[in-house]
Design goal:
heterodimer, A: mainly beta, B: Alpha-Beta Plaits, 4-stranded mixed sheet, two-stranded antiparallel ribbon, 14 strands, about 15% strand
Chain lengths: ~220, ~375
């Protein structure tokens, strides 16, 4: 997977409809249910059917950087827009996330990393405030912790059955050495993706994911 | 073949993960002692003082409007949330059983009243106090409706709080291990730091005693007034109960009323024991008045409250429990003494409160 170098300001690219995105190649990733056997709850295992998890089957991913900031643009089909969690106790927001290993260790993607090889997750949910996104670190299943501050911004738009969400973050975040991946033009990182369909009650580990790490090469 | 080789480690890994999870959950469930309550249903007058004591103490913040950690409902009835007994959850054997998420409507949303119009708008004589939006359900909507047909109609009150179960379905369900039993007293708490508001606990709780706070985006529930308990003060619902029906104490205190009522005399039973969570709130079942036959005479052979209904609530053990209570009643009617009834009557108020008799007015207020 290529991360294209662009000359564009962060404010411009944060807009999911920005014309500059037309010049960035999109890769279509097959998405699948997270394995039920890996759910960190016997209740979830007993009450869910793996065949019914993962409403998002295909995710379009574009990646770019401008030498200073990193950008991901994710796009997937979802017939219903679930944005406002406050509507009721049985309603959940749509969302998506990006997963990147921290460090060179062998982080298992389907187990949210491990004690020795943590992962950095970028979260966006449709009920977050405008441009809000959260940074988190995980050391295995069920261990995700949000950082106190997030260097990530994200903006989502739902139109005619399609969600498009742009994430952006400075390539380098020296203040979050232990909690975030450091990115550098000319180098490659591993990356994975997740999508939650709130309308189907998807939340936590009940989601669709991109199954395996993809190599993302940042153009020099 | 190649596929099988690939599958094998995956299966083994799944087993290892399940074993890890089991050991983690066992740790979270472990406690040295267990606090418990016994509610004597023969004394509950449905006054809702417990409900309000809890509400004013714990659930006044924004996002908690619809929460009632302590409730009292008329039985038979739909309860709160509406039809909670049909929402699944708990365990079948060791296997967790799927449950439903109750909606705010099922709980009954907090109503807004036209106070301004009635009290300050100069229309006090014309306008009546009423909730806006014509609500058709609330947390105590079917109060005093009960069951049976005149002259054999009947009802009784069922106060409920979180059962602080020995095998909590909520604790088992949480994918973040945010729910735990306190080591020192077995109180079940949801860590507000770890909770991410996923609500699997709400789904899994067969008693539907967990609420979702939409402002904090966290699941919340009865905390057995642990900040009071830590200072020797009984939970507010128990201390303020005018009917003196709520016993509080440690389950293993053999000299205390709870141990005797539950284990020695076996007259206090958990609600819906078939849900497999081993609740630590126990109920002394309601003693029936006699039936009235077609001629209008007392029919002492059949209880007014159908035994089948009480078995549905408290399991088969309710039959011997009621036999014991009836025999004790008969004993006292002929001038005999009954230690069981004396205990239940609780002549001395503080005998209800176990080691938690400290007057809350003597405790320094919490710093906020």
């Amino acid at each position: 997977m290529q991360c294209t170098k662009l000359i564009a300001a962060a404010e411009e690219l944060l807009d999911p409809a920005a014309p500059a995105w037309a010049g960035v190649p999109a890769e279509q990733l097959a998405m699948a249910a997270t394995p039920l056997a890996n759910q960190p709850s016997e209740y979830i295992k007993a009450s869910r059917d793996e065949k019914l998890i993962g409403k998002c089957h295909s995710l379009s991913v574009q990646a770019a950087h401008n030498g200073k900031d990193m950008f991901f643009r994710l796009s997937w089909g979802d017939d219903s827009q679930n944005a406002d969690e406050a509507v009721d106790t049985n309603m959940f927001p749509d969302g998506c996330g990006i997963l990147l290993p921290i460090g060179a260790g062998d982080s298992p993607i389907e187990e949210m990393g491990s004690q020795a090889a943590p992962v950095n997750a970028w979260f966006w949910r449709a009920n977050y405030k405008q441009d809000e996104a959260r940074n988190s670190v995980a050391h295995g299943l069920g261990t995700t912790e949000f950082s106190k501050t997030s260097p990530i911004r994200a903006r989502g738009a739902w139109q005619q059955g399609v969600w498009t969400v742009v994430f952006t973050r400075p390539l380098s975040v020296p203040e979050l050495q232990a909690e975030a991946v450091q990115l550098e033009p000319g180098k490659a990182v591993k990356v994975g993706f997740a999508v939650w369909d709130g309308g189907s009650g998807e939340r936590a580990g009940v989601k669709s994911f991109s199954k395996e790490w993809r190599e993302l090469a940042l153009e020099a | 073949m190649a596929e099988n080789i690939g599958e094998q480690p995956k299966e083994q890994r799944a087993k290892d993960l399940a074993a890890e999870l089991k050991s983690k959950k066992a740790q979270l469930k472990q406690c040295d002692r267990q606090v418990a309550m016994v509610f004597d249903l023969n004394k509950c007058l449905g006054c809702q003082t417990c409900t309000i004591a809890c509400k004013t103490l714990w659930t006044r913040d924004e996002g908690m409007e619809y929460m009632w950690w302590a409730t009292v409902n008329t039985q038979p009835g739909k309860g709160t949330p509406k039809d909670w007994e049909q929402m699944g959850g708990g365990f079948r054997g060791e296997e967790p059983r799927a449950g439903q998420l109750p909606t705010k409507r099922d709980f009954g949303e907090a109503w807004d009243f036209n106070y301004d119009e009635v009290f300050y708008g100069g229309k006090g004589n014309a306008a009546h106090l009423k909730p806006s939006g014509n609500p058709d359900w609330g947390p105590n909507w079917d109060e005093d409706q009960g069951g049976g047909k005149y002259p054999n109609s009947f009802y009784f009150y069922l106060p409920r709080i979180c059962n602080h179960c020995t095998n909590p379905a909520c604790l088992e369900a949480c994918p973040r291990n945010a729910i735990y039993k306190r080591k020192e007293d077995g109180i079940v708490l949801i860590s507000q730091d770890r909770c991410k508001g996923y609500r699997f606990c709400m789904e899994a709780c067969p008693y539907k005693k967990i609420y979702f706070n939409h402002v904090a985006q966290k699941s919340q529930k009865c905390i057995f007034c642990y900040p009071r308990v830590e200072k020797g003060v009984a939970p507010a619902c128990a201390r303020q109960c005018p009917g003196r029906l709520r016993f509080v104490g440690f389950l293993d205190d053999e000299a205390g009323p709870i141990h005797k009522l539950v284990y020695k005399w076996k007259v206090a039973l958990p609600l819906h024991p078939d849900r497999g969570t081993q609740p630590n709130v126990y109920y002394v079942p309601p003693i029936s008045p006699p039936r009235i036959d077609e001629q209008g005479n007392l029919d002492l052979t059949k209880p007014r409250i159908p035994t089948e209904y009480l078995k549905f609530l408290f399991g088969e053990e309710v039959v011997p429990a009621l036999e014991i209570l009836n025999a004790e009643m008969a004993k006292t009617k002929t001038g005999g003494k009954s230690e069981i009834l004396d205990t239940l009557i609780a002549y001395e108020w503080k005998s209800l409160l176990g080691p938690f008799t400290t007057d809350p007015s003597t405790i320094a207020p919490r710093s906020t």
